[in-house]
Amino acid sequence: MKNSEITYIFGTGREKKLSDKFISDEFFYGYIYFKNLYSNTTLIELDESLKNSTFSSKLIFIFDRILNKMSNLPFYMNEVLTIDNFKKITKSKNLILTNDRIGISLLPVLIYLKIFKKINVIVIVMGLLNNKQGGKLVNFIQRVFIKLFLTLCDKFVFLGKGEFDVASKMYSKNKKKFKFIPFGVDTKFWNDDQETFNNNNKEYILFIGNDSKREFNKVVEISKILKNHKFIFVTTNINDKDIGKNVELINGSWNKLLLTDNEIKEIYTKGTLTILPLKNTFQPSGQSVALQSMAMGVPVLITKTKGFWDFKSFINNQNIFFIESNSVSKWAELIESLIQNEELLNKVSTNGKKLVHENFTSQMFNLELHKLIQ
């Protein structure tokens, strides 16, 4: 087995996605970019089927469940720890873990790499600070594992400024390892080629996503209040029995490849407004959908959470719409008001599209990530 310049470890769906010629590249976090630079760049994906494949994998699965219960941390060693994967990892110069769930699951491997290998380990952080709390013992064990994790890896890339700032304060001894790189979308793909927003070409209000930090019940209640408006929900987390006649539910999941990127792009083209009700967490939830929507010229109304990725660049009623209220009626009232104000929609659409295309592109993200590669 040849040495790899860079080895990526992903969740599911990337290898199948790569067979499609028309894809956006943001969820590959630089893999396509590096693959074009270094032909010996490779990837590994988590595989749920591994947990019952052999006697050893069944034991690892049980061990995962014990560690999960002890720490409330996401251990999924059974989905990634195989002999072949271990060989790939240890023969890499650079290892990129595309979320902290993967990083936590690889703690035994990371300990081995720290002792016996000189491999540059980079982690893309997604909600590290949002782990479920428990009793005193559980919280203590969780902190021990997180501190060990921070010690074993070389760089931690935060996609949201809010989470980066909090982590820098909570784990000040490790903050030299922390790097904020704004997440960017593939603006060559997410581009509608329209100069101005035209409400006459729009047909519905959009909600997209399966993130656990979304407020799924709230978006259903909003649609029930606004019965005179058509909605499209693209998600697997809403039941068609719960929605009204004004809602079209599309079964969509990026990892499960239920929709192509081209199909999602087509859905954006006729959207008047994308709404993203979120739970108030440090995780930058809704980031990719918001940026895709804005890049396509569709204005975004999003909950103003403590984990929002960049309050300096995104300004209410200028390039995005923020809402702080948790009230369904307030959401419905604001949506109704915005739908009637085409001048404001046009301004926010134009400014939002300009902001994303100039400052939040996957190309920019890739170049910044490249600086961390040894």
Task: Using brief descriptors, characterize the structure shown.
Rossmann fold; six-stranded parallel sheet; single chain; 374 residues; 2 domains; 14 helices; alpha/beta
CATH class label of the largest domain = Alpha Beta
Query: What is the oligomeric state here?
Result: single chain
* Euclidean distance between termini CA atoms: 21 Å
The percent range for strand residues is 15-25%
Summarize the structure.
This protein is α/β, with parallel strands linked by helices and 374 residues long.
Q: Can you give a write-up of this model?
A:
With 374 residues, the protein is of the alpha/beta class. Helix 9 packs across helix 12. It is built from 14 helices and 12 strands. The model has no long low-confidence stretch (mean pLDDT 90). The protein folds into 2 domains: 4-180, Rossmann fold; 199-359, Glycogen Phosphorylase B (Rossmann fold), CATH 3.40.50.
Topology (SSEs and partners):
Elements: E1 4-10, H1 14-17, H2 31-37, E2 41-45, H3 55-71, H4 83-90, E3 92-97, H5 100-105, H6 107-116, E4 120-125, H7 136-152, E5 155-158, H8 161-170, E6 178-180, E7 204-208, H9 216-225, E8 231-234, E9 247-250, H10 261-269, E10 271-276, H11 287-295, E11 300-303, E12 321-323, H12 328-340, H13 342-359, H14 362-370
Parallel strand pairs: 1-2, 1-3, 3-4, 4-5, 5-6, 7-8, 7-10, 8-9, 10-11, 11-12
Helix pairs in contact: 9-12
